[in-house]
Each structure stands twice: as structure tokens, then as C-alpha cells.
Backbone:
């Protein structure tokens, strides 16, 4: 198969690099174009997945979930990622002029994002929230993100306190 599809992470990393270095400097992103592309790809992904799994077919819904159209290597997911990347490229210069309190919240969330990415699966597999929220996947996902972010931020604070103690002891 196509080498970039062998690693989804490599695909999106290379895609982001390409867009940032070769597309955005030449073609400035527009809010309406990126938003429309995102909405169309998301809608197409939703309905293509439903149709692919037997929605509105005579046989009914399939007992096996087929995630080709909603998977991360789907062409629609790639279009969705491109449009989201371009949307944030459009937002970036505008976010530089936000109030200090909003910028602080963004900095805190962005400082936790790598930790959430690295450790969320440990918490997802270990937390007993699934039996409590079995039919609310969006709420469950937000709860997992919030718990993981709090955990990551607490560990960051602990590491900073330890570093402060080590530096104060060496003086």
C-alpha cells in the first residue's frame, strides 16, 4: 500500500508539514472555505459510514461495524484534517490579539495536550467510567479528556515543585 498509510501519524505529520510550508504561504486560508470543507467532509463521513453499515438497506444494519469512511485513513478524514488545519491557520493570527486571560487558558491547555495524547489510553483502559456512561460516548470522551488533563497538569506541577526544591537545595 501507500507508505503514508502505513503510519497514520506519519501521514498527518507530513500533511501538516506540507500544508504549513508549501500551501499556506502561497494560498492564504479562508474561514469560509475551511469551514465548508470541514462540514462537508464530516457530513459525508457520517452518512457514508451509515450507508456502508446497512442504514436504509433492505437487510438492515450490519452486525459488524465497518469503519472505512469514518476511520483515520479515510479520504474524508484526510480532507477533514486538512480543512481543520487550514481553519486553525486562519485563526492563528487572530488569536494573538486575545485577552491575557484567554491566552493563559490556551497555554495551559496546549501544555497539557502532549501529556493527554501520551497517557489518555492508560486512563481510558483503567477508569471505571464506562459502566456509568455507557450510552453517552461524547460525554465519556470529554470526561476522559478532562480527567487526563487534570492528571497531566498535576504531574507537571509536581515536577515543577521538585525542580524548585532541587534548585533551592543546590544554592
Residues:
Amino acid at each position: 500500500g501507500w507508505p503514508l498509510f502505513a503510519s497514520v501519524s506519519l501521514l498527518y505529520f507530513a500533511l501538516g508539514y506540507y500544508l504549513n510550508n508549501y500551501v499556506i504561504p502561497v494560498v492564504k486560508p479562508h474561514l469560509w472555505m475551511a469551514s465548508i470543507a470541514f462540514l462537508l467532509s464530516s457530513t459525508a463521513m457520517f452518512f457514508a459510514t451509515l450507508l456502508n453499515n446497512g442504514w436504509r438497506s433492505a437487510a438492515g444494519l450490519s452486525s459488524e461495524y465497518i469503519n472505512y469512511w469514518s476511520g483515520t485513513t479515510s479520504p474524508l478524514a484526510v480532507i477533514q484534517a486538512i480543512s481543520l488545519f487550514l481553519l486553525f491557520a486562519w485563526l492563528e493570527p487572530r488569536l494573538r490579539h486575545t485577552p491575557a486571560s484567554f491566552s493563559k487558558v490556551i497555554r495551559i491547555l496546549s501544555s497539557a495536550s502532549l501529556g493527554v495524547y501520551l497517557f489518555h489510553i492508560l486512563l481510558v483502559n483503567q477508569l471505571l467510567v464506562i459502566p456509568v456512561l455507557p450510552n453517552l460516548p461524547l460525554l465519556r470522551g470529554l470526561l476522559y479528556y478532562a480527567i487526563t488533563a487534570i492528571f497531566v497538569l498535576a504531574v507537571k506541577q509536581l515536577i515543577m515543585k521538585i525542580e524548585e526544591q532541587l534548585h533551592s537545595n543546590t544554592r
